[in-house]
Amino acid sequence: MIHSLFLINASGDIFLEKHWKSVVSRSVCDYFFEAQERASEAENVPPVIPTPHHYLLSVYRHKIFFVAVIQSEVPPLFVIEFLHRVVDTFQDYFGVCSEVMIKDNVVVVYEVLEEMLDNGFPLATESNILKELIKPPTILRTVVNTITGSTNVGDQLPTGQLSVVPWRRTGVKYTNNEAYFDVIEEIDAIIDKSGSTITAEIQGVIDACVKLTGMPDLTLSFMNPRLLDDVSFHPCVRFKRWESERILSFIPPDGNFRLLSYHVSAQNLVAIPVYIKHNISFRDSSSLGRFEITVGPKQTMGKTVEGVMVSSQMPKGVLNMTLTPSQGTHVFDPVTKLLSWDVGKINPQKLPSLKGSVSLQAGTSKPDENPTINLQFKIQQLAISGLKVNRLDMYGEKYKPFKGIKYMTKAGKFQVRT
Amino acid sequence: MSGNGLSYSEQGGEAAPELAQEAAASTTPSASAAFGLFSSGTKKNEDLKQMLESSKDSAKLDAMKRIVGIKKLVYVYLMRYAEEQQDLALLSISTFQRALKDPNQLIRASALRVLSSIRVPIIVPIMMLAIKEASSDLSPYVRKNAAHAIQKLYSLDPEQKDMLIEVIEKLLKDRSTLVAGSVVMAFEEVCPDRIDLIHKNYRKLCNLLVDVEEWGQVVIIHMLTRYARTQFVSPWKGDEVVEEYNENNFYQSDEEQKEKVQKVKNTYTMDPDHRLLLRNTKPLLQSRNAAVVMAVAQLYWHLAPKSEAGIVSKSLVRLLRSNREVQYIVLQNIATMSIQRKGMFEPYLKSFYVRSTDPTMIKTLKLDILTNLANEANISTLLREFQTYVKSQDKQFAAATIEAIGRCATNITEVTDTCLNGLVCLLSNRDEIVVAESVVVIKKLLQTQPANHGEIIKHMAKLLDNITVPVARASILWLIGEYCERVPKIAPDVLRKTAKSFTNEDDLVKLQILNLGAKLYLTNSKQTKLLTQYILNLSKYDQSYDIRDRTRFIRQLIVPNEKSGALSKYAKKIFLAQKPAPLLESPFKDRDHFQLGTLSHTLNSRATGYLELSDWPGVAPDPSVRNVDIAEVAKEWTGIRGKPKKEKPTGKFYSESEEEEGESASTSTSESESGSESEKEDKEETSSDESSGSYSSSEESSNSESDSKESTAKKTSRAAAESDSEDIKVKGISKKRSTSSSSDTDSTSSKESSSDSKSESDSKSDFVSGKSISAISSKKEETTVQDRKAPNKQDVFLLDLDDFCPVTTPMAVPAAALLSPSLTADLEGLSLSSSSVIDVATQVSMPTKTHELLHRMSGKGLAANYHFSRQPGIFGDCMVSVQVTVTNTTDQKIENIHIEEKKLPPGMRMHEFSPIECLEPAGSITVSMGIDFCDSTQTASFQLCTKDDHFNVSIQPPVGELLLPVTMSEKDFKKEQGMLTGMNETSATIAVAPQNSTRLVIIERVVKAANLGVVPSGQDNIHRFAAKTVHSGSLMLVTVELKESSTAQLVINTEKTVIGSILLRELKPVLSQG
């Protein structure tokens, strides 16, 4: 399946390579570089590139291209999904996944990659098992290793791979037993010029951080499970139980994991918590344009909207912008033509606004289209769909765990067309 | 690379140098350092050797633990360099060989893994031996590694194929979920054509699938897809009759097989094994792994009956939230699917709307899908969306959008003219790419629609003065040349102008000028002879040889001289031949011959190692091959079949048995149903009834799982003795499971499985009956489609592409100019009202029932009628639109008709019509207004005023008009209905007049009475309608189920119980009255 993996940084250097079968010369990446040149932006590099003898499948994350080399027919999503899993694992291990981090931890990286694939076929991709096999680096361990000369390789043999719950390691012990669940909902929306919603939907996830001793068996029930239209689960969730009773029953992995992601049935109208009033105009005759946007809360269920960020890709003809915000800070990058305005909290009494003028390149005609505005925001303690967790029960262990649940609503791909 | 300054200082030990070499691949390895670990290396590892050789287990284990640690590093080294340093690599072998016999399974597994990764040909026999041994290891984990090793050995030495296949065969029988994925992978790599190895394991693989790890699932699903295409008959044929000769072939064969053929002949019944596969893969659509979801989606696409394939769309759409790469692949597959089966993705249209932040490749894919999904119903919304795209800053994408508009225009004839006008507007766009693309698309459109488009051609001729893009200029010139007879006055003038500028034109344009000249010369030589000759002379000395060449060619062909051959006689025919219109179609049109979800599909070319998906066999191969033979049945299935009768079984197995039983039961029912079905359908084949009956009771030969339970029981007892040992082993595993997972799994799983089997049987019966009525329903669909067309046409005309830009355009169709402001608002409303998947449907029929608002007597000659136009949200989301027709019956003008003194109950709102300034005697005018009734039947009272008079009038809505129809699938309907039970359900039994019992009449009557959308129904006797209330958008689900003796059950499910009960009351007489 997967023959080799090359990691390529933004400046086009191959800074790491790993082969699971025979060695493939790195010159194969030349085809990739060609494709990269053809595509104007990194985002537009096609994920699948055929070469005479190999196929290059790549993912682009954290400014690094992960290029897998394969030799014969394989479902492309299989490889792509695996590569993403590799990135996730690195992130899990090192906190961030960057070129520097990978270079610093090159030994661990090789060990992890070695365990993840055997002969090109995924072997251990569960982070729990991997962490048992190869301990993630910590400062303390690095110091100890330097002194004693030992490595990060776990001194215990992993047993997780053998059990029926491969996602959980055995013999977990905590003094404080806690289970936290974060219900995070993202609103994807396209709002048109006049402020009406073209499309809006809610995508939610429940992320969990479970630190419980032993082999607990949890059940999580919702007040209104009907809201969940389409769900996908962590493998630990018992699917049949969900089908019949709409209850999440599972033996949790240890630590952080994504319990489920869901889609709220689309016939419920989505409440849009903010609105943007905009007045952007370019005049044909003069080289000046007007720019004015105001952000305000709409349906927020009485909660404050915070972490508001407005960004907009200005047309190429824009030279500079002279703007004054009523609050927050704004930046306009004349090279990328990207305007971003960090608004912060919205105070309903005094709505934040950004006003000013746009100077256009002299001689060019006015842009056809006004820029779209991308919006980010956060609302704490609110799940916009109205989803509520009813209760969390634990079976199988004697102690009483501490349970916590947090709701949050965020903007996903939230666009306002102007 | 070697100079990239990696810091290893913290890594200590001798591990670092090797890894540095691995990273810095260019340096040569210092092998001795690596093997120093085992020989004379550092002090730390000196004792290892002794420990390993010691007789004490504990010491050995310790040592091995450390070796596992060191192994990682050595292993990396060995794998990378063994091929180059074979002799040195060999030194390590004996260590691994010893470890293969270790009592610890993990050590055995690791040792096998390392050993098999050493790519040195000499050790092939050792590897083979190790694999063979490991394949019968007690630990499934070791067996899994053996499966991996098979592939490695095969790539090292393909000669071992036969021996390896033996091992694969053995491992395929393995019941462990750990092994399944890996061995199927090995199977795919080594011997994908040995489909016979799968037969006996097919059912087991299907049943294990859910528990296999995710990567294994992908591989198994792909393999089973190929398998199923060779083993089962097509579920798509419906009740097509199998050709006669097939039967002849089977005359020689034995009894059972003949029966089977007949079974196929009658109606299609799905092989239970086929059903098993579909059923067991369905839950995997919920997987978090995109590859698994895609694998299931392609399985359903290639294997499921067309009616069932729809369930995958929701999951695929979910994947669109994922990373860009995943989106790319998924969108490609959706594009292919949406060409063939639009319906699958139509409800998710809005999920494919483009965001400005999407990468271009994603944008164009989405655009392609949107175009594929376009139909009469949604085209107006789509074109509105396309307008935004055309203005995009991403010009490449804007150009693609123009092409998409062109495709829509050719596919949907109703909008061709609208699109054309819009495109003409775009011709004055500032961006050259946009203009060029528009010209090219218009050219294609005009070619496909060679109707009277003289106006547009004239307009384009005018544009020629301004447009500079060569492609566009060339296209315009070609058009004028091609249709020069339609624009006889302009064409010569254009030629004159271009002759003047000829020398400054681009080559592409020059060629077209020549072309135009030639065509005009042939059709209108009187006016253009000199001009053409002038151009020909100019081009004779052109710099480009291409143009000089063309000039010579044209001159010979058109200018008559003594040398010109026979060809010049036909010059006109050659130049002005009817040219076939270019096809505007999706780039994914031809991709469907590749299996979806494969690399080949993505690349649209055969990838190495691509395995063709075979066509369905005409007749299913003998299904009994999948039956596990008696000895094995006893071994493998005792726990399953026998137990329920003997004693309470362990949870896991109990659940399986339940499933099996459920399946066998449902199989038999479906079979009997099929029998009766066929009886109805053609009477000649009455014998089939009997045969299917005897078939289900015939025992060993029958393919189905339903070989009756007694026989299994017998077998069980017979084989009980042998099976004991196996049983214990199996139990051992299950015990391990039940201890590690909690005890409650037992009870739940049994519950689950029972519900599962129930639903299974349900769906089966659905399926069978669904088939029989397909003919009827399709007929009905036709009629509804026809119904729909009328209002849509109107919609389409309403769409104004005029607001592309203010330039005035020649209207090809005057009807498009009929646009009134209120109707623009109407369109706005369309896009407003539905952020949901369940879209507001366009109305099926227009009720013509008018109500009186003001009688002419009481209105002093002013009469007013109103009716509900059933148009969604003209004046806003919550408004019901009412059309008021005001008639003047007096003999004087009535001036300033308007509304005053609205007396509305709290919450209600009204959008009045704009005042009518003047109404001539005997004139009448229709205006529309919107009223928000707040989902109540309260009266809206107001005054209708003229210049001098006031008349109190009121509108009371029938409850059926407070609804907006929605389209949803039967499945969604059932799901929604399931959520609206109990208090939310009202029902009544009514007597139905006999003439009302046909489907068409019922639909007509119900829809006339209330603004409901018809839900396609799988059953003959159940009719479903869906709508939502205008104000609050609550669903209103109406079910009419016809019973015997002309009664019917009328059920309404809604949150708005009041409206529900009123509606029930209103619908009752509608159906019962003749």
UniProtKB/TrEMBL annotation, chain A:
Key word Membrane present: yes
Domain spans labelled MHD: 176-417
Entry protein name: Adaptor related protein complex 3 subunit mu 2
Recorded family membership: Belongs to the adaptor complexes medium subunit family.
Location in or out of the cell: Cytoplasmic vesicle membrane; Golgi apparatus
Keywords carried by this UniProt record: Cytoplasmic vesicle, Golgi apparatus, Membrane, Protein transport, Transport
Pfam families: Adap_comp_sub, Clat_adaptor_s
Membrane topology: Peripheral membrane protein
Top-rank lineage group of the source organism: Eukaryota
Classification of source organism: Eukaryota, Metazoa, Chordata, Craniata, Vertebrata
SUPFAM superfamilies named among the record's database cross-references: Second domain of Mu2 adaptin subunit (ap50) of ap2 adaptor (SSF49447), SNARE-like (SSF64356)
Cellular component, GO annotation: clathrin adaptor complex; cytoplasmic vesicle membrane; Golgi apparatus
Gene source species: Falco tinnunculus (Common kestrel)
Gene Ontology BP, a term: vesicle-mediated transport
PANTHER family (alphabetical): AP COMPLEX SUBUNIT MU
TrEMBL record, chain B:
Membrane topology: Peripheral membrane protein
Region of interest called Disordered, as start-end residue ranges on this chain: 1-27, 641-771
Keyword set, alphabetical order: Cytoplasmic vesicle, Golgi apparatus, Membrane, Phosphoprotein, Protein transport, Transport
Annotated Gene Ontology cellular component terms: AP-3 adaptor complex; clathrin-coated vesicle membrane; Golgi apparatus
Residue ranges with Basic and acidic residues bias: 677-686, 753-765
Location relative to the cell: Cytoplasmic vesicle, Clathrin-coated vesicle membrane; Golgi apparatus
Top-rank taxon, per record: Eukaryota
Cleavable signal peptide: none
Compositional bias (Low complexity): 10-27, 664-675, 689-705, 739-752
Function statement: Subunit of non-clathrin- and clathrin-associated adaptor protein complex 3 (AP-3) that plays a role in protein sorting in the late-Golgi/trans-Golgi network (TGN) and/or endosomes. The AP complexes mediate both the recruitment of clathrin to membranes and the recognition of sorting signals within the cytosolic tails of transmembrane cargo molecules. AP-3 appears to be involved in the sorting of a subset of transmembrane proteins targeted to lysosomes and lysosome-related organelles.
Any GO BP: vesicle-mediated transport
Family: Belongs to the adaptor complexes large subunit family.
Protein name per its UniProtKB record: AP-3 complex subunit beta
Pfam families, sorted: Adaptin_N, AP3B1_C, AP3B1_C_2, SEEEED
Ranges of residues in domain AP-3 complex subunit beta C-terminal: 791-938
Transmembrane stretches, start-end: none
